[in-house]
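Hi R.,

Here's the chain you asked about this morning:
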Amino acid sequence: MDRFKGDSKGNLTITGWGMLIGGSVLFFLIRAWIFPTNLELPAWIIIAVIVIIGTAVGFSVFLESVKYIGPVKSTLLGCLEPASATSAGKERKWRIVYRRSN
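And the predicted structure, written out as tokens:
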């Protein structure tokens, strides 16, 4: 059986190219150049934190974890991410709602 040509490139390189190509296609499909311009600075900071920490760092940590604990355990732990993000988001939402109601 022939070996996959990307084996020598590493996880991050192959995944990076896949994300670049996929992101480029989606950029045009969802018309990403149209975005609200009336956001305040805290909103832009929150968006930047979500993109940098929540996506780039999180996915890189996941790929590196595959080396140490294996793909099955990494995937199982990765499945907890949406649940933890949902619970953290709900907690934050209720704090904001409670603060505004007082």
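The first helix runs from residue 11 to 29.

Let me know if you need anything else.
M.
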